[in-house]
Amino acid sequence: MEDVGRIPADLPPVQTEPTTIGTLDSWVEGLMNCKQLSEIDVQRLCDKAREVLQDESNVQPVKCPVTVCGDIHGQFHDLMELFKIGGPNPDTNYLFMGDYVDRGYYSVETVTLLVALKIRYPQRITILRGNHESRQITQVYGFYDECLRKYGNANVWKYFTDLFDYLPLTALIENQIFCLHGGLSPSIDTLDNIRALDRIQEVPHEGPMCDLLWSDPDDRCGWGISPRGAGYTFGQDISEAFNHNNGLTLIARAHQLVMEGYNWSQDRNVVTIFSGTYCPLCIRSSASAFSPPYTTLPEADVSFAFLAPNYCYRCGNQAAIMEIDEHLKYTFLQFDPCPRAGEPMVSRRTPDYFL
Predict the structure, then answer these.
(1) Taking a C-beta distance cutoff of 8 angstroms, is the pair 154, 8 a contact?
(2) Sign (positive/negative) of CA torsion 86, 87, 92, 95?
(3) How confident is the model over 108-164, as pLDDT tens digits?
(4) Dihedral sign, CA of 200, 179, 217, 331?
(5) Residues 73, 77, 132, 181: which is the catalytic one?
(6) How far, in Å, CA of 112 to CA of 90, rounded?
(7) Is the pLDDT of residue 319 over 80?
(8) Is 244 a catalytic residue?
(9) Would you call the peptide bond into 12 cis, given omega within 30 degrees of 0 as the criterion?
(10) Where in the numbering of this chain does the Serine/threonine specific protein phosphatases domain appear (predicted)?
(11) In angstroms, what is the C-alpha Rg of the chain?
(12) How far apart are CA 186 and CA 234, in angstroms?
């Protein structure tokens, strides 16, 4: 967007005492109760997070066991439900595949908590960049306006969007499971191609970095033009070749809403995971009163997992996370949205196409 007149230019570095473990613990405790940090503490948080993230790779190595999560989109209560089901960090190791902000009501609290956990437990949580971790996208889909509303200016938005440039683009679990937000690129044949990218920048409109955050798998073979207007679609032949050439068993990604929270595609070479249930626009069916709060499913080779149940508060989707144990066996946990007083309930339906 061109209209950024309210966005501050270069902000001066904050002059405060070093961030201590006690301070971080205090921040995390408040954030777990959906209490936002002060503006100056957000600046301190982002300054410290940049120091941590700048040392991570474009293909960040991750060890098992780990729980892999998809889009959250500011749905803080679903993130709390995720930690309830998957276990608290740092007891459980987590890998989040981007899209922490926009659309939901609590983007500020959601992204602040995840960044605080990253600083407090850097070896226990990995946070990747999604296509919504972008200056342009967040000015359209809500995070920018939320920062203005909650802080009275755009400083916090600038602190976070500057930090987003440092988020790793992809992760590699035990050299076998390749995790990223979007999908593959015709400009990338090997993981070394990704390692060679300069990621410290705004998400480009085209090129390999853009593709990693925007592309989607497709039923048609080969490369196709993406209806999103960025990235590509890629067929099973593309994912099979990429996995074979790089010694991979699976591509795990997010980026697409799937009604059951996860979805296998391309002969189980790709899995999509969506981890949020609520987004002010959709709703899904409730679980039986006699069923457990989540459903356990056996392992698979490729999947989509979306973390936000009832995405945009109108889609009616379930959320899911993928647990990977020490033996690289994976299990999916599905869950429904937790109750939210005063928020709309709508009938389950297939959503429109989302960016």
Answers:
(1) yes
(2) positive
(3) 999 999 999 999 999 999 999 999 999 999 999 999 999 999 999 999 999 999 999
(4) negative
(5) 132
(6) 16
(7) yes
(8) no
(9) no
(10) 128-133
(11) 19
(12) 9
